[in-house]
Amino acid sequence: MSSKSLPILPGATLGILGGGQLGRRFTIAARPMGYKVMVLDPDAASPAGQMADVHVRADYTDHAALKQLGAACAAVTTEFENVPAASLIELANHCRVSPGAAAVAIVQDRSHEKSWLADNGFATAPFALVNSEADLDAALAATGTPALLKVSRFGYDGKGQARISTPEDARAAFREFGGQPCVLEGFVKLECEVSVVLARSDAGECALFPVAENRHENGILDMSIVPARVADSLADQAREMARDVADKLGYVGVMAVEFFVAGGQLMVNEIAPRPHNSGHYTLDACVTDQFEQQVRALAGLPLGDTRLLSPVAMVNILGDRWHDGGPHWGTLLAHPAIKLHLYGKEAARPGRKMGHFNVLDADLATALQVAEQMRHAL
Ligand code: AMP
User: Fold this and answer.
1) Domains located in the chain, CATH noted
2) CA 223 to each of CA 31, 229, 356: distance values in angstroms, whole numbers, following the listed order
């Protein structure tokens, strides 16, 4: 479909590859705007499938399923980076697809992503590519120790990562990962981490959300605090760098750029070609949330207003909390300024993202204090 057929208006069907919590929120955003939603996900109990008009239960490489999606949908997007780029190309023969396969192919592979960032002049943690055991010594010399060895493909939330202090650690970890391509990254002494979620239109127009300050635990996002408690100049720089990343990728759709802050400088950590966990605060605290923005960008509508309406702290709820009788929802819901979002996942496993809550208050310190209290009370 050419951009002449834009905008796609209510009544049309929008498709999404992936039925996890991000696809669920896309569906929840699109349906009240008058769109029908078709989800492709092999899991019969997928969080987005429960909410969609149609759930096609098939693999992401299933030609018949892709054809069905392409025929029914005016446009298709994705909610996860590991969608096969070939499936996006196949779909693009039938309907509008955003983001495009080329951008997804770069960011879904850590080696490609890091090389692309360095080639395009973006600061990153020191890194070296490791394709075989023979690369490890030179890689360690380039990054120093401590370092982190990360698999290039299919790693997420700290999975597929190992802390390295010695060449022996590096060899053991590389073997443990089955000898697959990896990136070795110098371990950065972080002052904090921030992220920027943005949307970019076909015409190159960008709408940036406020900068989030992110706290991780065991490599998994634990809390986002907005506005980020960093100098305005650093926040502005993060937004400019995120815009620059999107422009240089020729990206269309919603994406997130995660940054490390070290020595007062920004380094790009990761790019996500989709809405992001650190943008969940937008659901309750912004004029437009990141999922409505995804619908708007996909449909070729004008991008929504990203203004922050209230300071906010977002807390992730992981499966770990289900161990003795489950979370104390009553305590959480008794608070008048807490917004609970659960993802409809049946099995609660440690580290699995089951939901999140946003705490809003005119005073950021109060929002943060309540968030900490509720995090413990749960
Ligand atoms: P990643 O999945 O690569 O984003 O890593 C998850 C989290 O681990 C990051 O958000 C950081 O908190 C931490 N981390 C990852 N890489 C590094 C690094 N090179 N130096 C310090 N901390 C890191």
Assistant:
1) 3-97 (3.40.50.20), 126-186 (3.30.1490.20), 190-377 (3.30.470.20)
2) 28, 13, 9
Give the pLDDT confidence of 272-323 residue by residue, as tens digits: 999 999 999 999 999 999 999 999 999 999 999 999 999 999 999 999 999 8
Q: Determine the distance separating the centroid of ligand 1 and the alpha carbon of 213, expressed in angstroms.
A: 14
**Among candidates 64, 21, 14, 6, which has minimal Cα distance to 35?**
14
CA-nearest residue for atom 14, ligand 1, is: 219
159 backbone φψ class: left, alpha, beta (φ>0; ψ -120 to 50): beta
- Residue type at 100 in one-letter notation: G
Give residue 123's Cα distance to chain centre: 20
Query: pLDDT tens-digit profile of 140-153?
Result: 999 999 999 999 99
* CA-wise closest residue to 245 among 367, 127, 334, 116: 116
Give dist(CA 142, CA 130) in Å, integer: 11
Q: For residue 216, which atom of ligand 1 is closest to its CA?
A: 12
pLDDT for 151-173, tens place per residue? 999 887 778 999 999 999 999 99
DSSP of 338-361: EEEEE---S---TT-EEEEEEEE-
DSSP summary character for residue 320? G
pTM: 0.96
Which atom of ligand 1 lies closest to the CA of 155?
A: 2
Report cis status (omega within 30 of 0) of the bond before 7.
yes
Q: Where are the alpha helices (DSSP H) in the chain?
A: 21-30, 63-72, 85-92, 101-107, 110-119, 136-143, 167-176, 232-249, 282-285, 290-299, 329-333, 364-377
Helix (H, G, I), strand (E, B) or coil at 197: strand
